[in-house]
């Protein structure tokens, strides 16, 4: 009974998915894709399938906690100066397309930082861009976006945006709407 009591003290229920969590186990943070290719929380059936698969290959003494990761939806606002002989709208459209490629979710992983200098360089490499005046990353949350609010300014140090300590992924959910450029 004493051992049973000690073991029950180590087992806790998560508020996230109400499953038993082993504090000595490895945490496996998961996210999936919806039909539009956007990140989403895995449903219970997928988690059960994953659990069945892992149980086939893990050692008997190993424990794995399957936990939902966090999605931080962001938007990008930028301002550029173009050379005089270039069409400003075409240059902005090309910059937006380059940023769409940069923020393609297949290129991102849990707890990856955002380097603003890399974004500035990506924009600066576009033909017709004379200079990059400003790049701003903004948090998009609630409604059609994930519920997770994140303080981008507080998480930025030396032009690098750090993710939260909880395993999370930055996502530009609607690139056509969430990436905005302006030529000045």
Task: Write structural notes for this entry.
There is one protein chain. Residues 11-18 have low confidence and may be disordered. This protein has five helices and 13 strands. It has helices spanning 2-10, 44-57, 88-102, 116-124, 175-178; strands at residues 12-13, 20-21, 26-30, 32-33, 39-40, 64-68, 70-82, 114-115, 129-139, 156-157, 160-161, 168-171, 179-183. The strands form five sheets. Strands 7, 9, 12 and 13 form a four-stranded mixed sheet that branches. It has a three-stranded antiparallel sheet with strand order 8-11-10. The protein has 184 residues and is an alpha/beta fold. 28% of the residues lie in helices and 31% in strands.
Layout of strands and helices, then pairs:
Layout: H1 2-10, E1 12-13, E2 20-21, E3 26-30, E4 32-33, E5 39-40, H2 44-57, E6 64-68, E7 70-82, H3 88-102, E8 114-115, H4 116-124, E9 129-139, E10 156-157, E11 160-161, E12 168-171, H5 175-178, E13 179-183
Parallel strand pairs: 3-6, 7-12, 7-13
Antiparallel strand pairs: 1-2, 4-5, 7-9, 8-11, 10-11
Short description:
The chain has helices at residues 2-10, 44-57, 88-102, 116-124, 175-178; strands at residues 12-13, 20-21, 26-30, 32-33, 39-40, 64-68, 70-82, 114-115, 129-139, 156-157, 160-161, 168-171, 179-183.
Label this structure with key terms.
184 residues; alpha/beta; 4-stranded mixed β-sheet; 3-stranded antiparallel β-sheet; 5 helices; 31% strand; elongated
């Amino acid at each position: 009974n004493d051992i049973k009591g000690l073991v029950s003290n180590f087992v806790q229920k998560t508020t996230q998915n109400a499953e038993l969590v082993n504090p000595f186990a490895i945490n496996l943070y998961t996210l999936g894709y919806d039909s539009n290719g956007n990140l989403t929380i895995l449903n219970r059936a997928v988690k059960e399938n994953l659990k069945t698969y892992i149980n086939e290959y893990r050692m008997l003494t190993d424990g794995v906690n399957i936990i939902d990761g966090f999605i931080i939806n962001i938007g990008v606002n930028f301002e550029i100066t173009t050379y005089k002989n270039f069409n400003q709208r075409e240059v902005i459209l090309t910059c937006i397309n380059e940023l769409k490629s940069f923020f393609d979710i297949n290129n991102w992983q849990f707890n990856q930082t955002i380097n603003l200098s890399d974004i500035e360089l990506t924009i600066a490499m576009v033909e017709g861009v004379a200079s990059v005046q400003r790049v701003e990353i903004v948090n998009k949350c609630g409604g059609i976006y994930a519920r997770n609010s994140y303080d981008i300014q507080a998480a930025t140090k030396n032009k690098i945006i750090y993710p939260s300590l909880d395993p999370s992924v930055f996502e530009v959910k609607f690139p056509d709407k969430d990436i905005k450029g302006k030529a000045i």
